[in-house]
Every structure is written in C-alpha cells, then in structure tokens.
C-alpha cells in the first residue's frame, strides 16, 4: 500500500492528501509532527531535505508536492484531475505555479510581520494582484480550467480559503469566494479542514521557523 508521510498542519502536504482522497487511493498514513522527527535518520533516508510530503508507492519514492501530484495523476488517472486541452492545461499549471511561487510565500509576512510593517503591506498588495489574476483565470467556470475539479483547485484550494484567517477579505473577490464555497462542500476538503485552533498552532510553528532562520543567517 502507498505510504504517505505528512503533517496534518502543513498546507503543502494537504495538497497531496486532497488528491489521494479525491482519487480514492488507499494509503498508509505516516504522521510527522515536524518537531524534530523530520530530522531523524529514518526519515532523512527517505527525504534528505527533511520536509513533507513524501510518498512511497511500490518502493518508488517521490518528494515535492507538485511532483507527487503529477505521479498520482499519471499512475491513477481516474478520476482525471488534469484537462487535456492546451489552454485548459496551461491554466491549471499557471494556477499551480503561481500558488507555489507567488501566493504561498506571501502568506508568511502576514503571519510573521507586524501589521504596520512595510513587508506586511507589500504582501497584501501582492496577494491582491494574485487574486485578481486568479479571478480572471477562473472566469465563469466552476473550477480552474474545467467544469470538474483539477489539480489547480487542489493546490490553490489549500491556500486561498485560509486567507480570511490572515486578514484577507474574500468578499472582495466574489468569484473566488464562490469557488471556495464549492470546494468546502466537497468531502475531501471537509475531512482535511484545519480548525481555528490548529491554524493558530500552524502560525506559531511558522513564526518559530522564520525566527530560527533569521538567527541562522544573522
């Protein structure tokens, strides 16, 4: 059986968990707390970069969430989470990459920085730009690139719905707000939803990690 190494509070690992649930792929969960267990030799042997998620499927190891999603889509193609039309496929990839490279990093200042700091204001401005872009890409479709759920929805759907907890009002982006509502009606999102208490714990972990990295580079 496929082994899935993850931390329940990790939004990046949640991408893979959502895909496994949506595709109804049976898996053996291996939970990590990320309080040092990711540095243990047993896990480092599996992933020398000591982060989650990781899957091991029939002895084949895959690290990095986007690579895992591609692997799952190729090996377990039903239900399909990638469109085949060039424009739709490009839309899915754009949403995935913009979420990973632009949106998610900008949530960190909203957690760590003071609301009066320039970095906090810059992060909010950049997130607004991203959400406007996503609104254009979504258009009148139910999901990104398709009338059916795609990998774009899975990747963006682990970040955008949590933005209100970071002070971003999604009512300013009505199409995205409706899209979030559709996602939250799905069983996979309900099963993996993070409570307000757990989200505060996630924020504390992020603050501690940022502080540690600043100390290491100072």
Task: Describe it.
- The chain has 218 residues and is α+β, with helices and mostly antiparallel strands.
- It is 56% helix and 8% strand.
- The chain contains nine helices and four strands, in the order E-H-E-H-E-E-H-H-H-H-H-H-H.
- It has a four-stranded mixed sheet with strand order 2-1-3-4, with helices on one face.
- A hairpin with a 2-residue loop joins strand 3 (54-57) and strand 4.
- Helix 1 packs parallel to helix 3 (65-75) and helix 4 (86-112) packs antiparallel against helix 5.
- The chain starts with a strand and ends with a helix.
Write the layout of secondary structure elements.
Blueprint: E1 2-6, H1 11-22, E2 27-31, H2 41-46, E3 54-57, E4 60-63, H3 65-75, H4 86-112, H5 118-138, H6 151-156, H7 174-184, H8 187-192, H9 196-217
Helix pairs in contact: 1-3, 4-5
